[in-house]
């Protein structure tokens, strides 16, 4: 499996707090959304998968679906 690039301190508006776990497709990171002042999970794809338009579209669909979820503990 190709290595991931080093974890940056920030990704967009999110401050990266650290790695949660590696997955087959990449890595899950703990982060903080500074605009909305809330914790977030950030999913990073492996370098070799970033070039795949299909993988990026699937990741974006997953993000949209997860954004619709609501839970009473939020």
Helices, strands, pairings?
Elements: E1 10-11, E2 14-22, E3 26-33, E4 38-45, H1 47-50, H2 53-68
Antiparallel strand pairs: 1-2, 2-3, 3-4
**How far apart, in Å, are the first and last alpha carbons?**
35 Å
Task: Give me the count of strands.
Answer: 4
> How much strand content do the residues show?
35-45%
Spatial strand arrangement across the major sheet: 1-2-3-4
Task: Provide the structure class.
Answer: alpha+beta
- Please outline the major beta sheet: 4 strands, antiparallel
Total of DSSP H or I helical runs spanning 4+ residues: 2
Summarize this structure as a short list of keywords or feature phrases.
about 70 residues; about 25% helix; single chain; alpha+beta; four-stranded antiparallel sheet
Explain what this protein looks like in three dimensions:
The chain has a 4-stranded antiparallel beta sheet with strand order 1-2-3-4. It is built from 2 helices and 4 strands, in the order ββββαα. Helix content is 27%, strand content 36%.
Brief synopsis:
The chain is 27% helix and 36% strand. With 74 residues, the chain is of the alpha+beta class. The N and C termini lie far apart (35 Å).
